[in-house]
């Protein structure tokens, strides 16, 4: 049997690996078990996805020693432009100079490379890649997982970080509310004629949001942005099959002339969009984090950041429990994690779902009402600041690791 550790983290993606690294900084050891091959996950052009890292999440990376390896790869988000179909009445979110940026954009591959390198150098992390779990067991005194190859792993607390279709959550019988939006997100990288000026664009159409997210210029100086284009499920296959010229023509039609001519598009991929939220995020010696606990629409770019808030809260609860001499799987600590994260994640999920539905109402009358509302927000600095604080992740009861 492998040595017993504090945490048995099932899922070594961005959220699961961040938990392992953050826990290690506080002295907690972990097994991280993931079925994927790290070489495939970090291959150039693996999935084309990029992530917006909020101010609070960047504080977490700074506090656990990852910021130094990531800073040179970050593209700051200086402002966010929100518009209904590129018509008059948009909102411009731009923080005060002393508040810094609204976030930073990273290619997911860049994040994975930094996390995996840090994990390999951390003696408190036992990383088991390309490992499939055949059985899970939670007892009064500990938790166990057995791989298909017969390896057995033991810890005090099991953490499900396997994503939206978490088998650990399913085995625990934790119920969840879920529905599909009937949309898919098409993602890819664009190169364009004019610089983006570090502006993120959220352009709403009845079929769904069309987001342009600033990325660092390529080595040859060409200007780049990440595209997240929501299309109806029935149209997704056809959009993906479009030749590059036709695809770019459709993109240019939706974004106007904000970046000049679109000169190129990278590999495209698509992902189904849905909502789910669990009835609870803990069970006996079990905690759920990230998409295993809540899956939201990417409309506000908060999915990963919500999972990183889970990480900060769980590590803080574990640290407080250790000071009292409590086991990492102690029911009192898990109850505090449940109270702390359950409501906050639910409210964010509801807000993103509401925005998705609000901007999805078709027709000129609905568009006119939305634009009137956005014009009102544009003229109210206090309300704009509230929205920006939410986007930066600096509102509410923040875990210590996510504070500046």
TrEMBL record:
Residues 6-319 form the FAD-binding domain. Its cofactor is FAD. Keywords: FAD, Flavoprotein, Monooxygenase, Oxidoreductase. Signal peptide: none annotated. It comes from Qipengyuania spongiae. PROSITE patterns: UBIH (PS01304). The keyword Flavoprotein applies. Pathway: Cofactor biosynthesis; ubiquinone biosynthesis. InterPro entries: FAD-bd (IPR002938), FAD/NAD-bd_sf (IPR036188), Ubi_Hdrlase_CS (IPR018168), UbiH/COQ6 (IPR010971), UbiH/COQ6_monooxygenase (IPR051205). Pfam families: FAD_binding_3 (PF01494). The keyword Cytoplasm does not apply. Belongs to the UbiH/COQ6 family. The lineage of its organism: Bacteria, Pseudomonadati, Pseudomonadota, Alphaproteobacteria, Sphingomonadales. Gene3D superfamilies: FAD/NAD(P)-binding domain. GO terms for molecular function: monooxygenase activity. This is FAD-dependent monooxygenase. It comes from the Bacteria.
């Amino acid at each position: 049997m492998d040595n017993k550790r504090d945490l048995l983290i099932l899922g070594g993606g961005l959220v699961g690996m961040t938990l392992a690294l953050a826990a290690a900084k506080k002295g907690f050891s972990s097994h991280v078990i993931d079925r994927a091959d790290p070489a495939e996950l970090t291959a150039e052009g693996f999935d084309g996805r990029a992530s917006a890292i909020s101010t609070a999440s960047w504080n977490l990376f700074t506090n656990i020693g990852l910021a130094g390896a990531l800073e040179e790869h970050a593209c700051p988000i200086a402002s966010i432009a929100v518009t209904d179909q590129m018509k008059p009445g948009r909102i411009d979110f731009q923080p005060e100079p002393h508040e810094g940026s609204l976030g930073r954009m990273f290619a997911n591959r860049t994040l994975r490379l930094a996390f995996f390198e840090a994990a390999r150098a951390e003696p408190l992390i036992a990383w088991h890649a390309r490992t499939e779990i055949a059985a899970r067991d939670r007892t009064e005194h500990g938790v166990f997982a057995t791989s298909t190859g017969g390896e057995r792993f033991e810890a005090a607390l099991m953490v499900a970080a396997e994503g939206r279709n978490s088998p650990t959550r399913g085995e625990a019988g934790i119920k969840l509310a879920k529905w599909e939006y009937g949309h898919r997100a098409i993602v890819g990288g664009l190169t364009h004629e004019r610089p983006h000026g570090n502006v993120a664009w959220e352009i709403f159409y009845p079929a769904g949001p069309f987001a342009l997210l600033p990325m660092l210029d390529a080595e040859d100086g060409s200007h780049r942005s990440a595209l997240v284009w929501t299309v109806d499920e029935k149209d997704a296959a056809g959009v993906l099959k479009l030749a590059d010229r036709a695809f770019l023509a459709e993109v240019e039609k939706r974004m106007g002339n904000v970046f000049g001519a679109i000169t190129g598009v990278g590999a495209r991929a698509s992902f189904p969009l849905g909502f789910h939220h669990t009835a609870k995020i803990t069970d006996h010696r079990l905690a759920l984090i990230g998409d295993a606990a809540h899956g939201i629409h990417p409309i506000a770019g908060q999915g990963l950041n919500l999972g990183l808030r889970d990480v900060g809260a769980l590590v803080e609860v574990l640290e407080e429990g250790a000071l009292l001499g409590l086991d990492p799987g102690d029911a009192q600590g898990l109850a505090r994690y449940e109270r702390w994260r359950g409501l906050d994640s639910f409210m964010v999920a509801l807000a993103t779902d509401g925005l998705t539905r609000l901007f999805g109402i078709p027709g000129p009358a609905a568009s006119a009402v939305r634009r009137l509302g956005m014009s009102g927000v544009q003229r109210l600095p206090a309300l704009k600041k509230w929205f920006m604080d939410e986007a930066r992740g600096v509102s509410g009861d923040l875990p210590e690791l996510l504070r500046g």
